[in-house]
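Notebook p. 47: complex prediction with arginine.
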Amino acid sequence: MWGGRFDQPPAETARAFTRSYPVDRRMYREDIVASRAHAAMLGRRGIIAAASADALTAELDRLLDELTAAGGPPPDADDEDIHSFVERVLTERLGDDGRRLHAARSRNDQVATDFRLYCKGLTLRLAFALLDLLDVVVRRAGDEAHTAAPGFTHLQAAQPVTLGHYLLSLYEMHARDVQAALHAFTVADVCPLGSGALAGVPFDIDRDGAADELRFSQVSRNSMDAVADRDFVGALLHACTQLTGHASRWCEDLVVWSSPGFGLVRFDDRYATGSSMLPQKLNPDIAELSRGKAGAVMGAAAGWHATIKGVPLAYGLDMQEDKRTVFRVEDDVLPMLAALRGALDTLRVDRGRMAAAAQAGHPEALEIADYLTERGAPFRDAHQAAGRLVLLAESQGVTLGQLDDAAFAGVDDRLPGEVRARLDLARMVARRTSLGGTAPTRVLEEAGRARRWLTWQRQHLEGLAVRGLPPQLQPRAPSPAAAGADGDAA
Ligand code: ARG
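Predicted complex, structure tokens below:
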């Protein structure tokens, strides 16, 4: 492909170290589709003969079908990268016409174009996988709208909440991850094709036409930046770092909640693992590994930023690491989302232990303080009075509700009054009806709102896929490496 000025072929070690085919063969579809748009454009502009362009586009279509049927390009081909693989095959089949394809193009603008297409597809696949997870989250939130659960701060029982409210907090964070993925889509949605190696090309090319065919909404405006820019990789890795960071937090909760000391939830047998030695063990492996993946993904993102920060403009082979990084993260995150979806779908909740845990640690104290506040006591005094009752209850080994009337009256003569009725767990959560609060009525309302958002967002993504990616690259088609993954865990 570039041997003309060389007296000797590359050393085997040099070639083995620098070639990227084993990694970038995964984006064969993007390379073929982008090459097709380029070939058609060359023909339209008379840069190559119309017959040559037709031969190229027809052969590229055939090659795409062929490789798709075969599950991707052969893993053992000896080419330098996916671009030279495609060009070699075209040349074997078409002779000179195959060798005409690379006019007015460099691998630098080619690889940036291919990888932007790949990342656009991946951001949508991530967003769809998040929506699939969120469908389960929101359904379970509705089912658990009335389930009292312990709410923690500092991992100390703080206030009772409803489990549905807790689950909707997961919805909120992962809904932001959908937005982050969509932002990454937008960042990638700029077509660099036609930038050449770094300086543009002297041919009368049609950049807008090629970008339209590839469904990019914009073309790049500076050829040096176009081949140098990998901000779309940073945006994608950020979305993945954020989403795995979110998952890691609630997975940590589930690890704690499922330990026998808490016993609030239990993973279904299909989503737990045993110990090779200890027969009684039921380990929350999916939650633990998800927590672990967050570290790996964060590391990949940090590594990528370190890789690119010193690359002189416009292009350096350092940048080839972008694909290994993104593919690795893809292979971690998509199977993780599918497994978490199944684990959450089948998670068993012990509502009795949830209620007992929600009641532990005298959470009724605030009810008493609020009651006195409503009756005119300064909150600080009310806080003090309720605190003294906690001391009393602890010394007697009873709950606040079990203290007798004299004990209440001893700290404030407005007590007990009507306060006893409020010390009931269901009452405590039901009263927290402020917008965003934990009351079952609010949770049911918000779950409905979430369901509407999910429906709208799914339609939006489907529309974006059709408008924003060529027909051959619609996002549900699995990539070769991800094809073996457990696509639908439920
Ligand atoms: N394999 C390269 C990459 O992934 C393609 C571009 C190579 N360009 C070059 N001038 N060596 O970035």
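Notes: Residues 477-490 have pLDDT under 50 and may be disordered. Residues 20, 24, 81, 107-108, 111, 317, 319-320, 323 surround arginine (CB under 6 Å).
Next step: compare against the earlier run before touching the bench.
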